[in-house]
Amino acid sequence: MAEHYVGLDIGSFAVRAAEISGQPGSWTLHRFSQLTLPPGAVVDGEIVDSLAVTEAIKALWQRGDFKSKKVTVGIANRWVKVRQAEVPALSPEEVRTSLRYEAQEVIPFAEEDAVVDFVIQDRFTGPEGGDFLRILVVAAQRQMVSMTLETVRKAGLTPAHVDLTPFALVRALAPAPAPGVSESIVSVGAGLTNVVVHTAGTPRLVRMTPRAGGAVTENLTRALGIDTERAEALKRGAAVAVADPQTAQAADVIANELNPLVQEIQGSLDYFTAQNDDVELRRVLLTGAGAKMAGLRARLATELRVPVEMASPLEYLKLGKTGLNDEQLTAAAAVLAAPVGLAMAPLATPATKLTTLFPAEYAAAGAERRARVFTGVAVGAVALALTGAWGMRQASVTAARSDAQAATEQANDLERKVARLAPLEQAEAQVNARRAAAQAALANDVDIPVFMDRITAAMPNDVGLTAFSLSLGQAGAAAPGAAGASPVMGTVTVSATGLSQDSTAHWITQLRQLGILSDLWVPSSTKGGGPGANGVTFTSNANITPEAKSNRADNFKATEL
């Protein structure tokens, strides 16, 4: 019998699992099931109520009748960072070792707090010779990954792999990509939107944003005074029958909510194309529970100016005895990609195959649990042997006593090993020291990748950055030379190009709305240095306000509760 693979997708709205068999290029879907989660159990892809999620996964396995308990688990949330980097062409293990010494911009977690992996995008020769690798680095917070795995394990399952959900989307929706062809996959969920660009199946850009469909549903329930079920129905069809006053009002609410979501997606793709002038997107594939939101596809096609198509992994799958009728399969098509792609992970190609997002300490804990079970069985067997020996004839008493002595020595040896493995007081002191050090380090912390993402997402389309420098000071410091000035956390200076003199005004207007900058100004501007006949080059500087401070200190405290 062919081996079956199961992918488990833990979303903000529901848990979903798919079971498949086969090999790349020839997969068969055997089972799919999903179960709605209690509100707040998972927020923006991050597990908040572990017990509720565990119970939901247990119920999902009973409902779906899955034949395997070994699963690949997907992760995608704010504790996962994906960045591009260039490194010497070393062995995979040497690259992983070197990544731990890279700058904070590449791995935005402390070394001991992160699990790190990468995939190779391409090889190239450096300016001064020598082979280099262009890689996509995936860094995930260790505690988040461990909590996810423990939640799954408590549901009675065995996590065999940890995978990045955007990579799973590429496997499920681009199983046989054309050479040299680039396209984007946009998956709109309830609490998270994943944007991934791939070229011939190799991921080039991965963005995860909390702007998603759940906010639209919440605003509809508040604005119209309706329940969630009615809001979901209107969200998927509000732009059709505008004769109904409630439907027309819903269309207005949805249109307003679509603006930031479409801008977020457009900003991610514009950033990619700006960094890759030689790449042209052929199309955008739209999937996820929120993909059918009224007007979303049309708005994306208008703003992106590329074809936008609804995607379904069913066109690449054979169907086994799923137990689902045609109507149920059609309804599930929008949410199948993630769990199906996760199930494909064990046989994934090197372009999307991650191998080290499984924390080493979690694997060690699993081995320790297995050792305890084995020890218990061994001790039970010894006890049974001793019981049998007690009833033997007097001639075998000596042998039984010898067995008992050996068992006692084994037990004493086990106790000595346990004592060596449990220096609890020393461990507690080390944990407290690290906690204090982390709190001190995070007191005036700015999440530089997030800070940069916010600036690049907000900057006007007619401005391009050429240089960027940032200097961080102590929170609460005042802007130099300004009596009564607002407290600042540092300064930022950028060099940029614009299409015209108006570009500098556009820059100032849009960046001031962020709230993370103050005293924003353009001290110098030179005509003729930018793109086009009317282009300009300019320098802009600003103070960084406390609004830019990261929430990692608060999140760190929250994890201690």
What percent of residues adopt helix (DSSP H or I)? Answer: 40-55%
Report Rg.
28 Å
Briefly note the CATH topology name of the largest domain: Nucleotidyltransferase, domain 5
Give the uncertain stretches in residue-range form.
Answer: 373-379, 381-386, 475-484
Total helix count?
A: 15
Number of domains: 3
CATH class descriptor of the largest domain? Alpha Beta
Report the span from N to C terminus: 47 Å
- How would a textbook summarize the main sheet? 6 strands, mixed
CATH superfamily of the largest domain: ATPase, nucleotide binding domain
- Counted beta strands: 20
> Which second-level CATH architecture of the largest domain applies?
2-Layer Sandwich
Notable features of this structure?
561 residues, alpha/beta, Gyrase A, domain 2, six-stranded mixed sheet, 15 helices
Helix/strand layout:
Elements: E1 4-10, E2 14-23, E3 26-36, E4 42-43, E5 46-47, H1 50-64, E6 70-75, E7 80-88, H2 92-99, E8 114-125, E9 131-141, H3 142-154, E10 158-164, H4 165-173, E11 182-188, E12 193-199, E13 202-209, H5 213-224, H6 228-237, H7 245-275, E14 281-287, H8 296-304, E15 308-310, E16 317-319, H9 326-343, H10 360-390, H11 397-420, H12 424-441, H13 448-458, E17 463-478, E18 487-498, H14 502-512, E19 517-527, E20 536-544, H15 552-560
Parallel strand pairs: 1-6, 3-16, 6-10, 11-14, 14-15
Antiparallel strand pairs: 1-2, 2-3, 4-5, 7-9, 8-9, 11-12, 12-13, 17-18, 18-20, 19-20
Q: How is this structure best described in words?
A:
- The structure is a single chain.
- The chain has 561 residues and is α/β, with parallel strands linked by helices.
- The protein folds into three domains: 4-347, Nucleotidyltransferase, domain 5 (2-Layer Sandwich), CATH 3.30.420.40; 360-422; 448-553, General secretion pathway protein M, EpsM (Gyrase A, domain 2, 2-Layer Sandwich), CATH 3.30.1360.100.
- It contains 15 helices and 20 strands.
- The strands form five sheets. Strands 10-6-1-2-3-16 form a six-stranded mixed beta sheet. Strands 13-12-11-14-15 form a five-stranded mixed beta sheet, with helices on both faces. Strands 17-18-20-19 form a four-stranded antiparallel beta sheet.
- α4 (165-173) crosses α9, α5 (213-224) runs antiparallel to α7 (245-275) and α7 runs parallel beside α8 (296-304).
- The two termini are 47 Å apart.
